[in-house]
Amino acid sequence: MVSTLKPQLGANPERARSHNKQLVLRAIRHVGAVGRAEIARASGLSTQAVSNIISDLLGEGLLIEQGVRSAGRGLPVQQYAIKPDGGYAFGVEVRPTAVFTALVDLVGTPVLARRTPLRNAGKSTILETVSAQLASALIEARISKGALMGAGIVMPGPFGDTGLTGTESELPGWNTGDPAEIFANTLNLPVFVENDANAAAMAERMNGVARGLDDFAYLYFGQGLGLGLVQNGQILQGAFGNAGEIGHIQVLVDGHAVELESATSRLSVQACLAREGLDVTNMEDLISLYSSANRHLLVWLDKAAQALSSALSIIENLFDPQTVILGGAMPDVLLDHIIARTALPERSVSNRPDRVHPRLMRGTSGRMTATLGAAALVLHQAFTPTIAEAR
Question: pTM of the entire structure?
Fold first, then answer.
């Protein structure tokens, strides 16, 4: 197999050994089963350094030998792969009405996932629920807590006290204090906190349509609408972790300026249908209405596509992504309809003849994409030498 991995040069001194281990894990994660020489080429490390690191990783239970592959002349090449049960990550998505949790193995495969309704969205209730779900998941999966590499927590932004504080799509009471510290003290684990859109983007990059992409945007349909931005393989967070709060930009719908989130989000479609006497509480309700060609839903979809076209122009011209992905808590059939009806802006840097990927795509990680993305944050930390520290 020929690797298209972009080299990230490592350093050979002993003090950089942890960094170099991450380089090796990243190379193997990217390609799959791979030999030492290819890892050395991808990482910039010497073959001897790679051999020493592989020996360490085998001893730590993070790698397995995956048979041999003929390399033309000479001896067959021993292949190495990530050991799925070499470690686990716990992912948590907090919404105002429920907590979603997932346990994934070292290659990102879900071991279990569940939804737990919340009696209220208070801090203590959320912390108690997450702690109980972690204990339950470990028992059900028969995994010791020592096998956990950490927990990823995602929730709607913005983080901190900002000019957007008090919007309908956020969690009340979390604009003070450090969520990472609060959850770390509760779970007694390393914790990485992100907004839901960024986490969803990482889920798509790990096991979805964005696998192999280093520069893309992800529009996440959660309670509101958020934008996850990945540049050069890294989440673009901003100074305070609030980059991508795109739901509050102004876009045009039927010639009128409105907030994007008010025209294209789950809250938006629920409010639109409620005005017509239709109570929508879950995704199955939306699928049923779409299957029956409900005219009120179809009108909303057309307006959502208008709003998205305006937003797409901004996203493409500001960030020059390989593609823009739609996903999250919205039925696939609705996302497909919106994508099909969205007019792609002509005056855009993304309007070019040498494109490899469509400008607008639907994600494939499903309705729990942000939950899986929360777990992916932990794995990303293990596999990526340059990831920023968790807040």
Answer: 0.78
